[in-house]
Amino acid sequence: MDNNQLIFNFRGFLISSWSNVMEILEHLDWDDSPYFLDDWMQANWEFFVEKHALESEQFLVPYGGNSSSECRYTDKGRMLTHRVTCKKKGESKSQYYFFKFVTKDDGCIRIWSPFDYIYVEDIKTGDRFYLAFDEVEFSVDQII
Predict the structure, then answer these.
(1) Is 14 a residue whose pLDDT tops 80?
(2) DSSP 66
(3) Rounded-to-integer distance, Cα 14 and Cα 17, Å
(4) Residue 1, C-beta contacts closer than 8 angstroms, at least 6 positions apart
(5) Contact yes or no for 85/92 (Cβ under 8 A)
(6) Torsions phi, psi for 15 (to 5 deg)
(7) Does residue 48 contact residue 11 with C-beta atoms inside 8 Å?
(8) CA 72, 55, 83 angle in degrees (round to 5)?
(9) CA angle, 120 then 78 then 71, to 5°
(10) How far apart, in whole angstroms, are the C-alpha atoms of residue 43 and residue 75?
(11) Residue 66's pLDDT band (boundaries 50, 70, 90)?
């Protein structure tokens, strides 16, 4: 399976699991587990994308935008070797760092299904913004 499809599958997993996760969050002690959702997404990112896209001892930048390897669910503190990038369909080069899937809801951005947008950073300018999910293609690139 190619890297683009791995990321599509991860998004599909988020969508299909979302109602169950929301039910868990309703009963969660947020004082005891304030980062539950971040940890759940990161763990699944590692298992659904990283383990299939990379070789042993290679690690992706964490899901969600934090670039610290301490944010990983497994192998905390390991040197990050790769990151997910994306480009607009039909363009030749990866132009954006991928951070996470989001949804626009009444003009607000939320971490919520159907995850039809992505939060990105322009590699050249450092500007951060949102792109429609169906407008991009993903790849996994080595960090140089």
Answers:
(1) yes
(2) -
(3) 5
(4) 9, 52
(5) no
(6) -65, -50
(7) no
(8) 50
(9) 50
(10) 11
(11) confident
Q: Is the pLDDT of residue 120 over 90?
A: yes
> Which two tokens mark 5?
């499809």
Rounded to an integer, what is the distance from CA 70 to the centroid of its chain?
Answer: 16
Which pLDDT value is given to residue 101? 98
Question: 3-class SS at 106?
Answer: coil
- For the entire predicted model, the pTM comes to 0.93
Residue 6, helix vs strand vs coil: helix
Measured distance CA(85)–CA(129) in Å, rounded = 14
Q: Supply 51's token pair.
A: 């383990």
Instruction: Give the tokens for residue 91.
Output: 């363009």
Cα pseudo-dihedral 49, 83, 103, 4, rounded to 10 = -50
- The per-residue pLDDT for range 36-54, each reduced to its tens digit, is 999 999 999 999 999 999 9
CA 11 – CA 116 distance, rounded (Å): 9
